Amino acid sequence: MIRHTPSRRIIAASLLALAAGVSACGQGGAEKSEGAEAAAAADYERGPHNGRLLRDGDFSLEVTIFEEGPEPLYRLYPYLKDKPLDPRQVQASIALTRLGPKVDRFAFTPTADYLASPTVVAEPHSFDVAVAATHAGKRSTWTYPSYEGRTVITADAARAGGVTTQRAGGAVLGESLPLSGRVEITPEGQSEVHARYPGRVVSMNV
Q1: How far apart are alpha carbons 74 and 125 in whole angstroms?
Q2: Which residue has the higher pLDDT, 201 or 116?
């Protein structure tokens, strides 16, 4: 969702330019992109909970995002020789590097048959993932990309669509809107003063 701000004209123009650039790629490019995404999704081993299974010798760790509750949360399932391992024997952490760059860090504690983190996996779910786990004194690390909602267009398509980039910086934005009306004191900001007896009020102390 795009919220309307004073710079909405700039945003709208950028979106139109991007759409034109993508259209210049043709339908063949879109089909190729969809095929690449499907191949990437099937390019890793899945565990019993349909998560990404990371291996290091006999030790493995299944990374899942539990989304059946109000907020998405990470759950890690450890295995030894492909058999469930007591999560109390494992220490794990995850770092998500987002565009910006911004890094979200997750610490895990054993719960039931998995390791849980109370930190919510914020949208968008598009980041580079770094996983670290220690079991029996041995540390295992993995890294992999997990991109959602990203697209890539060629330089030629960008030029054809008029898409340009520029370093962001400070700027002054202003808008003026002519209005007609009358300035009045709000009802709660005024009161009437009456004399108890006939006559003229010559002074008043408040």
Answers
A1: 12
A2: 116
